[in-house]
User: Fold this.
Amino acid sequence: MADMKAFRDAVTEWATGGPDGPARDLAEGLGVRTAVLVEGLSDLAAVEALAARRGRDLAADGVCVMPMGGAMSVARYAGLLGPPGLGLRLTGLCDEGERGFYERGLTRAQAPLQDVYVCAADLEDELIRALGTVGVEEIISAEGDLRAWQTFQRQPAQHGRPRHQQARRFLGTKKGRKIRYGRLLVEALAPDRTPPPLDRLLASL
Assistant:
């Protein structure tokens, strides 16, 4: 049975010059109504983890969280998925520094800009501030990454940097780490500590 991953894969192929037919067929078969445009797989992991914590089945609600491989691709994906293409409702989650790409991309796709939720720096920064560095370090230790974290902190480039900035940088130092911790940090949040952009995004779906 087709699932939302198959739809994401079909859209990614379409975005890189492949045929549109598979994505169109899957969108209809799965009842996709909304596409959440996110920059990468760590954002996908975080959004899906929060939805699971709150008992939401996004696929059953016709929602696809679509990682684009970077904010510079937003115009392309918005054109394929929004009013000019599949006609889906578009929403998104982005970093403050990438807001311009989203604004231009959604404007070109004739989609409402108010449906984009902006993180102060990026989603990892929002999650680290919500948990506190002590909470993040507890997760790092539980995951068996404490030695790597301590080695990272001893690097000259990290001397004098605030610990939350060190933690944010640490998450991006190994392939797959941001994705894994995107889920873990969300799962560790107290119910009232969800970062506002992530909280408002899920509430809008």
User: Anything to note?
Assistant: The first strand starts at residue 34 and ends at 38.
